Amino acid sequence: MRRVLAFAKPQRGQLAIFLVIIAIAAAAGALTPLLVRDLIDDGITGGDRGLVVTLALVIAALALVGAVLTVLQTWVSARIGERLIFDLRTAVFDHVQQMPLAFFSRARTGALVQRLNGDVLGAQQAFTSTLSNVVSNSLTIVFTLAAMITMSWQLTLVSLVLLPAFVLPARWVGRKLAGITRERYALNADVAQMMNERFNVAGAHLVKVYGHPAAESADFAGKAGRVRDIGVRAAVLGTYFRAGLTAVAAVGTAIVYGAGGLMAIGGSLTVGMVVALTAYLGRLYGPITAMSNVQVDVMTALVSFERVLEVLDLEPMVADAPDAHDLADDLARNGATLELDGVAFRYPAASEVSLASLEDVATLGNDPVTDTLHDVSFAVPAGATVALVGHSGAGKTTISQLATRMYDPTAGAVRIAGADLRNVTQRSLHDAVGVVTQEAHLFHDTIAANLRYAKPDATDAELETALRRAHVWELVASLPSGLETVVGDRGYRLSGGERQRLAIARMLLKEPAFVVLDEATAHLDSESEAAVQAALDEALSRCTSLVIAHRLSTIRNADLILVLDGGRVVESGTHAELLAGGGTYADLYRTQFASSADRTDEPSADRAMA
User: Fold this and answer.
1) Reduced 3-state DSSP string for 266-299
2) How many domains are contained in the chain?
3) Same domain, yes or no, for 336 and 265?
4) How close are the terminal C-alpha atoms of the chain, in Å?
5) Which of 113, 247, 479, 482 has its CA 20 to 30 A from that of 273?
6) What H or E segment, with its residue span, contains residue 568?
7) Angle, nearest 10°, between helix axes 526-540 and 496-510?
8) Which residues are CB-neighbours of 6 under 8 A, at least 6 positions away?
């Protein structure tokens, strides 16, 4: 609860205004039955027409004041609630962005979206409707009881006899609805996950190629049916609760009518008092019923807060050190050197990076995790190119992710410009690094917006230069909307080669000091590959580059080639040195040369190497 209240601290001024409005509205509402009593006893019974008219006008004025206060209360409540939604959503979004890649590889996208939407909205209810109900109903009960006691303490006590019938069921219903709410959120996340996976282009294509529409429909209907069923359970349980409380309130009202009527016949109460008391009884049982529901509302709202805080409590594995400095100074002084010193690495276990609720499992797995890299050491001078070669799973991509600090090594150190990456700010590191992967990702936006993601202040002329260097300007210029062409979800309106060249243009636009290329030309045809490779060669001549090599046309001229096997560097040298050494690299070369369609064309074999 302390953490929940902490979210309200920045809005304590508006909360104070909110509470004052509620208090005034409750006090104004409590006056009406007293005025009705006087209107009946002094005005109607006493035959005072002037008093009847005056009190009727005052009652009408109080009703108008109540309406104005209701509007003000709603306005202030909405401001508080929407600000809370904004704060929670941005806090979760910013926190999730700091998570390592392992987190995203495990978490269901739909479950994450549910935290930012459904759970945040549920949490917001605690500060708007729930808070309003608690304060308003509490004050109404206090004012009402005070007025009732002044008229008849006996009937007031009789009306309170039924109080346990309001309070005790709320405890049981609150626990049941909290469990149902938690289950409903989980089921909604399942539905959202299925839609996220099927409605993106890659998922839709897979479903159309391999899927079975009837089975897909049945699967979705099953998930949606569970959401429907649990919604019915929650509605029925809530209705039972409210109907029971309404019945108890009706019984209490009947008792007061009967006892009050007898007391009025006996002369100990006036008719106006009986009418006022029964009116107050409605103002008493209504808030008590609502207050009984408050426990239910609070418990369900706390489920939402619990699910939001669960994400916020998951500490990111990669974070800036308190004394982290800007990498730019090191780059200016030492150049973009790269060094791995005794690096060992294991990918984090599920319990270190994930949540069971985001993976849709009861508990996170504790499968043993082994090291992916073992005592890897090498150094690359500024402006040089190092290529990584090896079979799948050898550790090539892992090294590239350590060099860009997607992860931190479990032992040893990774340095750029002589600075341990754990001691520099992530922002300054990412400003200095450019990456092109095999699967180029583009956002559902324009070509210009996707390029400017690397350099927000780039001019159209700079975009054109980068596109020309990536040999894709002619394509962009031929499109009806040019740079403003929307590329579609993940860029699927373009071919794989076109997406790849746009990704290369994005990297060239950034002009980084250090570049990672992971099969950057994998989707290009031979003609495009030759043109783009020439552009890359020019770009890489001005920066330090780490190339995950799958084509010898990329690595033949590398300053250093590292051959990885089982997470260890087993060979290192230039292309010529490694071929002459007759080791693993030479075996890879001969294997792919033998599988080449033209065995007599060595460069062609080189390009075929993976």
Assistant:
1) HCCCCHHHHHHHHHHHHHHHHHHHHHHHHHHHHH
2) 2
3) no
4) 57
5) 247
6) strand 568-573
7) 10
8) none
* β-bridge pairing 544-548 and 385-390: parallel
CB 248 within 8 A of CB 166: yes
Tell me the average confidence (pLDDT) per consecutive run of 10 residues in the chain, 610 residues long: 75 84 84 82 81 88 88 84 81 85 79 76 70 78 83 78 68 73 78 75 65 78 86 81 74 78 80 79 73 68 79 86 92 91 89 75 64 91 90 88 91 94 92 86 89 91 90 89 88 82 88 86 69 70 83 75 91 89 83 51 36
Measured between alpha carbons, how far is residue 322 from residues 397, 405, 424, 464, 586 in Å? 29, 17, 10, 40, 47
Query: Is the pTM higher than 0.85?
Result: no
Nearest to 521 by CA among 415, 402, 607: 607
- Cα–Cα distance for residue pair 47/44, rounded to 1 Å: 5
13 with 43, same domain?
yes
CA distance 553 to 529: 9
Range of the domain at 121: 2-312
DSSP assignment of 573-596, as one string? E-HHHHHHHTSHHHHHHHHHHHHS
φ/ψ of 325, rounded to 5, equals: -120, 170
| Residues shown for the chain | 610
The secondary structure element, H or E, covering residue 552 is helix 552-555
Residue of 546, 544, 555, 554 whose CA lies nearest to 383: 544
Q: In this structure, which amino acid lies at residue 273?
A: M
The set of residues, in sequence order, having a beta carbon less than 8 Å from that of 361 and lying 6+ positions away, is none
Angle ∠(292,185,222) on CA atoms, nearest 5: 125
Helix H or strand E encompassing 389: strand 385-390
Q: What is the CATH number of the domain that holds 582?
A: 3.40.50.300
